[in-house]
Automatic annotation (TrEMBL):
It comes from Alteromonas hispanica. This is Prepilin-type N-terminal cleavage/methylation domain-containing protein. Gene3D superfamilies: Glycoprotein, Type 4 Pilin. The chain crosses the membrane at residues 12-37. NCBIfam families: IV_pilin_GFxxxE (TIGR02532). The keyword Membrane applies. One of its GO terms (biological process) is type IV pilus assembly. One of its GO terms (cellular component) is type II protein secretion system complex.
């Protein structure tokens, strides 16, 4: 016969078990969240790089029809929540395409401004 006073296990969580679970979840979160944020920043940066490369193709196409490179207005810069695009140093033989981080992307401190010019010079090099 079973005793009525016998303690039953697994009916609930003790405070110690709950504290251990919260600690484990906190450790996993402390590791996962920064990695996730870094991954998101890198993917947005790659999107900006692709936009700059597409702008370069449009610049070269424009130059085939005209004897100079296009301005930002003529080129039609992409619209993005995370970067502002511009064209500078425009002449008959050169230009510089720039993507400047905005909003939450400014936390990507090493790559706030990425550039590409007519000779495929990519700066800063660590961002490409």
């Amino acid at each position: 016969m079973k005793s009525k006073n016998r303690r039953r296990y697994w009916n609930g969580w003790t405070l110690v078990e709950l504290m251990i679970t919260v600690a484990i979840v906190g450790i996993i979160g402390a590791i996962a969240v920064p990695s996730y944020v870094s991954y998101i920043q890198e993917s947005r940066r790659q999107a900006a790089q692709n936009d700059l490369l597409q702008m370069k193709l449009r610049q070269e196409s424009y130059r085939l029809d005209n004897n100079s490179y296009a301005t930002s207005a003529q080129l039609g810069a992409p619209v993005s929540e995370h970067y502002t695009y511009s064209v500078s140093n425009i002449s008959a033989t050169s230009y510089t395409l720039t993507a400047t981080a905005k909003g939450s992307q400014t936390k990507d401190t090493a790559c706030k401004v990425i550039t590409l010019d007519q000779s495929m010079t990519k700066t800063p090099s660590v961002c490409w």
